[in-house]
Design a protein that fits this description.
The chain is mainly alpha-helical. Helix content is 64%, strand content 7%.
Protein backbone atom coordinates (compact mmCIF):
# COMPACT_ATOMS: atom_id res chain seq x y z
CA UNK A 1 0.00 0.00 0.00
CA UNK A 2 1.15 3.56 -0.75
CA UNK A 3 2.30 5.72 2.05
CA UNK A 4 1.94 9.47 1.97
CA UNK A 5 5.70 9.93 1.65
CA UNK A 6 6.09 7.55 -1.29
CA UNK A 7 3.00 9.02 -2.93
CA UNK A 8 4.41 12.56 -2.56
CA UNK A 9 7.78 11.41 -3.93
CA UNK A 10 6.08 9.81 -6.92
CA UNK A 11 4.13 13.01 -7.62
CA UNK A 12 7.29 15.11 -7.31
CA UNK A 13 9.16 12.79 -9.66
CA UNK A 14 6.35 12.92 -12.22
CA UNK A 15 6.18 16.73 -12.00
CA UNK A 16 9.93 16.98 -12.52
CA UNK A 17 9.68 14.67 -15.53
CA UNK A 18 6.82 16.73 -16.96
CA UNK A 19 8.72 20.00 -16.43
CA UNK A 20 11.78 18.54 -18.17
CA UNK A 21 9.65 17.40 -21.12
CA UNK A 22 7.99 20.83 -21.36
CA UNK A 23 11.38 22.56 -21.23
CA UNK A 24 12.70 20.31 -24.01
CA UNK A 25 9.60 21.02 -26.12
CA UNK A 26 9.99 24.78 -25.59
CA UNK A 27 13.66 24.56 -26.58
CA UNK A 28 12.74 22.69 -29.77
CA UNK A 29 10.07 25.26 -30.60
CA UNK A 30 12.50 28.13 -29.95
CA UNK A 31 15.07 26.47 -32.22
CA UNK A 32 12.47 26.06 -34.96
CA UNK A 33 11.36 29.69 -34.60
CA UNK A 34 14.98 30.83 -34.85
CA UNK A 35 15.49 28.76 -38.01
CA UNK A 36 12.31 30.17 -39.56
CA UNK A 37 13.35 33.73 -38.67
CA UNK A 38 16.77 33.16 -40.23
CA UNK A 39 15.18 31.71 -43.37
CA UNK A 40 12.85 34.72 -43.59
CA UNK A 41 15.82 37.10 -43.46
CA UNK A 42 18.07 35.27 -45.89
CA UNK A 43 15.97 33.09 -48.19
CA UNK A 44 12.44 34.46 -48.15
CA UNK A 45 12.38 35.37 -51.84
CA UNK A 46 13.68 31.96 -52.91
CA UNK A 47 11.22 30.12 -50.66
CA UNK A 48 8.24 32.16 -51.79
CA UNK A 49 9.25 31.75 -55.43
CA UNK A 50 9.49 27.99 -55.00
CA UNK A 51 6.11 27.71 -53.30
CA UNK A 52 4.43 29.86 -55.94
CA UNK A 53 5.98 27.72 -58.69
CA UNK A 54 4.77 24.55 -56.96
CA UNK A 55 1.28 26.02 -56.60
CA UNK A 56 1.21 26.58 -60.36
CA UNK A 57 2.86 23.29 -61.29
CA UNK A 58 0.56 21.19 -59.12
CA UNK A 59 -2.58 23.27 -59.60
CA UNK A 60 -3.07 24.28 -55.98
CA UNK A 61 -5.37 27.27 -56.37
CA UNK A 62 -6.12 29.76 -53.59
CA UNK A 63 -9.11 29.20 -51.36
CA UNK A 64 -12.35 30.64 -52.72
CA UNK A 65 -12.73 34.19 -51.50
CA UNK A 66 -15.50 35.17 -49.17
CA UNK A 67 -17.71 38.13 -49.78
CA UNK A 68 -18.68 41.05 -47.61
CA UNK A 69 -20.84 44.07 -48.14
CA UNK A 70 -18.91 47.27 -47.50
CA UNK A 71 -20.63 50.63 -47.95
CA UNK A 72 -23.37 49.02 -49.95
CA UNK A 73 -20.98 47.24 -52.32
CA UNK A 74 -20.17 43.55 -52.52
CA UNK A 75 -16.46 43.03 -51.85
CA UNK A 76 -14.48 39.81 -52.18
CA UNK A 77 -12.10 39.09 -49.32
CA UNK A 78 -9.44 36.43 -48.89
CA UNK A 79 -10.42 33.80 -46.35
CA UNK A 80 -6.90 32.31 -46.21
CA UNK A 81 -4.81 35.49 -46.25
CA UNK A 82 -1.76 33.83 -44.65
CA UNK A 83 -2.16 30.85 -47.05
CA UNK A 84 -1.92 28.31 -44.25
CA UNK A 85 -4.68 26.15 -45.75
CA UNK A 86 -3.26 26.39 -49.27
CA UNK A 87 0.22 25.48 -48.04
CA UNK A 88 -1.15 22.48 -46.14
CA UNK A 89 -2.91 21.33 -49.32
CA UNK A 90 0.37 21.71 -51.25
CA UNK A 91 2.24 19.71 -48.62
CA UNK A 92 -0.29 16.86 -48.78
CA UNK A 93 0.11 16.65 -52.57
CA UNK A 94 3.93 16.68 -52.42
CA UNK A 95 3.97 14.12 -49.60
CA UNK A 96 1.66 11.85 -51.59
CA UNK A 97 3.98 12.10 -54.62
CA UNK A 98 7.00 11.29 -52.45
CA UNK A 99 5.26 8.30 -50.86
CA UNK A 100 3.94 6.97 -54.18
CA UNK A 101 7.38 6.26 -55.66
CA UNK A 102 10.12 5.83 -53.03
CA UNK A 103 12.63 4.58 -55.61
CA UNK A 104 12.26 7.75 -57.68
CA UNK A 105 12.49 9.87 -54.55
CA UNK A 106 15.71 8.10 -53.51
CA UNK A 107 17.19 8.55 -57.01
CA UNK A 108 16.33 12.26 -57.01
CA UNK A 109 17.83 12.69 -53.54
CA UNK A 110 21.06 10.98 -54.63
CA UNK A 111 21.29 13.19 -57.73
CA UNK A 112 20.64 16.25 -55.60
CA UNK A 113 23.34 15.26 -53.11
CA UNK A 114 25.84 14.70 -55.95
CA UNK A 115 25.06 18.15 -57.35
CA UNK A 116 25.42 19.63 -53.88
CA UNK A 117 28.95 18.22 -53.59
CA UNK A 118 29.84 19.74 -56.97
CA UNK A 119 28.70 23.14 -55.70
CA UNK A 120 30.71 22.92 -52.46
CA UNK A 121 32.75 26.12 -52.08
CA UNK A 122 36.49 25.71 -52.40
CA UNK A 123 38.33 26.19 -49.12
CA UNK A 124 39.84 29.60 -48.70
CA UNK A 125 43.58 29.90 -48.97
CA UNK A 126 45.28 30.84 -45.74
CA UNK A 127 48.01 33.47 -46.15
CA UNK A 128 51.52 32.04 -45.77
CA UNK A 129 52.34 34.09 -42.66
CA UNK A 130 49.17 32.91 -40.93
CA UNK A 131 49.67 29.28 -41.86
CA UNK A 132 53.25 29.40 -40.56
CA UNK A 133 51.96 30.66 -37.23
CA UNK A 134 49.23 28.05 -37.17
CA UNK A 135 51.63 25.16 -37.83
CA UNK A 136 54.26 26.01 -35.25
CA UNK A 137 54.30 24.54 -31.79
CA UNK A 138 56.54 27.33 -30.54
CA UNK A 139 55.31 30.55 -29.04
CA UNK A 140 56.89 33.46 -30.85
CA UNK A 141 57.91 36.24 -28.48
CA UNK A 142 59.73 39.44 -29.31
CA UNK A 143 63.43 39.58 -28.57
CA UNK A 144 63.75 41.24 -25.18
CA UNK A 145 66.86 41.47 -23.08
CA UNK A 146 66.59 40.13 -19.55
CA UNK A 147 67.35 43.50 -17.95
CA UNK A 148 64.44 45.05 -19.91
CA UNK A 149 61.92 42.78 -18.22
CA UNK A 150 59.71 44.37 -15.67
CA UNK A 151 59.65 42.50 -12.43
CA UNK A 152 57.16 43.03 -9.68
Amino acid sequence: MFTTTSHDETIAALRAKLEAAEAAKEADEASLRAAVDKAKRHAADAHVGLVLALYDLLGVDPEHPGSRITRGRLTKVAVDRSEVVRTQRLYRIVAAFAASNPELLEQLQLEDEAGREERRPAPREVPAATSALMNTDEVLLPDVEEDELITA
